[in-house]
Specification:
This protein is an alpha+beta fold. The protein has 2 helices and 11 strands; from the N terminus they run βββββββββββαα.
Length: 157
Amino acid sequence: GEVLIGPLDHGGRVLHATWNRDESQIMTTGTNSLALVWDATTGDLLFELMGHIGSVIFAEWSPEGDSIITSGEDSTTRIWEADGGNEIFSLTNFRGNQGALFGASSDQVINPNDLGRIDIWNVNVDELVSLAEERLTQFDIPIPDPLEVESELSTDE
């Protein structure tokens, strides 16, 4: 065979590499605290996923292809937008992290840990916000209006 593109220079030891669903992008993870997303045709770096402290041990695209999950040796699992790499969500597993995976949809994450067990997380942001609002209401805690908070923040600057 022949080399089609590359080598892609991750800038550290590569621990994992994977394709997206339509094989237009490649993602690499490594010991330099980064997951990198590359154009699979040109080899150009598209964006970096920064936020882990230490090695990023595993990453994958969601079944829908609209988000990315990464697992780091810092015991965090992070979920990112697949278009540009903005962080959406971060989970901390104090029992270690062996590489999280999405479920059949992007609403659940399975996360094996160092104790030989797994945690299953609900990461549906809308459901979590509703649950938080429900619990705050149970304890008579006022729920701030996001528009008022944003307005107050912008006048403080």
